Amino acid sequence: MSYQHAVVWLDHLRAVVIDFSIDKEHVHIVASDTEQRQVHRKSGQPGPGKASDDHVFFDGIVEAIGDAREILIVGPGTAKTAFKKDLDKRHAQVAKLVVAVEAADHPKVDELLVWARKYFKRVDNLRGL
Known about the structure:
The protein has 129 residues and is of the alpha/beta class.
């Protein structure tokens, strides 16, 4: 089944992807294979203080999105923007489907779905659909 919308909530360690239509939804959990990221200068490893992007993790999210027609990316911190930049560079067709990148804390799956439905309803109303 082709789903109209998908919402992706992610941080650097896991992602929740919900693809949904009017009455049905599927929830996918994608976890990063990396360990907890403590990337502070005093954490024992010298370096620039920034973790590199996990392309395998991002590819798993793209796979979970499937064939949704519109995508909303949300999450705390910088993971959401890093994911969007990765889409722009490596998955241009999927990047074109992103309607917005928004900040969101750590909602439960049900709360995320309710928020996404309201968001897409507003987007559809603005487009006259």
